[in-house]
Amino acid sequence: MTPTPPAQITDLDGTFNFRDLGGLPTPGGATNYGVLFRSDALHKVTPAGEAELAASDIGVVVDFRTAFERDTARDKLPRARAITDVHMPLQVGNMMSLVKEGIEAKLLGHTELGRNAAKAMANIPALGDMYVSMLEGDHAASDFATVARFIATPPHADYPGVLVHCTAGKDRTGVCTALMLDAVGVQRDAIVADYAATAQNLGGEWLDGMKKEIGKTGLELTPALLEMIGGSPAAAMEQVLSWLDTKGGAAAYLQSGGLTDAELASLRERFVG
Question: Which of 59, 67, 171, 180 has a beta carbon 3.0–4.6 Å from 156's, enabling a disulfide?
């Protein structure tokens, strides 16, 4: 039986890539609504969007951006009630930070910083390879296990929803949500389809804005750079899922980061129970 979506926060005003991850198919039905949300950064959330957040079930926001990204684009969270703001910077996948650093370096005349940012953007890895590197990071499994723990045992009983985001809501957020979905048994074609939907969400205004910002650095907008910024090819997520299989699957990966059997059971109960 497919859960009925709640009559709240199906879209967040001021974002481009927001969605509730309820309703995705599992062997026994579908994921529950109001448990896990994903988005791009919240720095352009409108007053209407803040009101939507305040009226929602979201009690925890996990921000994967670096300190630089956060400082230059602060999330706009509602002041009407408390939301736990968790900063969990993931260095791999922060291309937006490199773009902003390149622009700032050029404007301020920081030649060395500008060269470093330009060099990094000129040697862009394939998305799938970058995602695997993200998962292989020293503290990655424990960081993602912490996210799973927030979902499994929410700190705010009245607001049990968890929202995860980075800058675009594509790479760092996409890897995290894929882990959570795979760990609770969401069908893999649905995991890939959810990831792939991001490219359409970011097309148009968001992508045009990023192209304009990159133009300020003087860098060439190569196909590889464009894919890094706004692409979400199915093959990249399929590579992630195949890599997870070599580790015993997403659940085993999260448990290698400290997630207990009881917490994994609670995660599955909340998300698909």
Answer: 59
Q: Whole-angstrom Cα distance, residue 254 to residue 269? A: 16
How many helices (H) and strands (E) the chain has is answered by: 13, 7
Find all residues with CB under 8 Å of 195, minimum gap 6, and list them: 174, 177, 178, 232, 234, 236, 237
Give the whole-angstrom CA distance, residue 27 versus residue 185: 7
Q: Where are the domains of the chain?
A: 19-272
How remote is the C-alpha of 266 from its chain's centroid? 22
CA 74 to chain centroid, in Å, comes to 16
pLDDT along the chain (273 residues), means of 10: 57 95 96 97 96 94 92 92 93 57 54 57 79 92 98 95 96 97 98 97 90 77 84 97 98 98 98 92
Check if the beta carbon of residue 154 is closer than 8 Å to that of residue 138.
Answer: no
Q: Using one digit for the tens of pLDDT, what is the confidence trace for 246-262?
A: 999 999 999 999 999 99
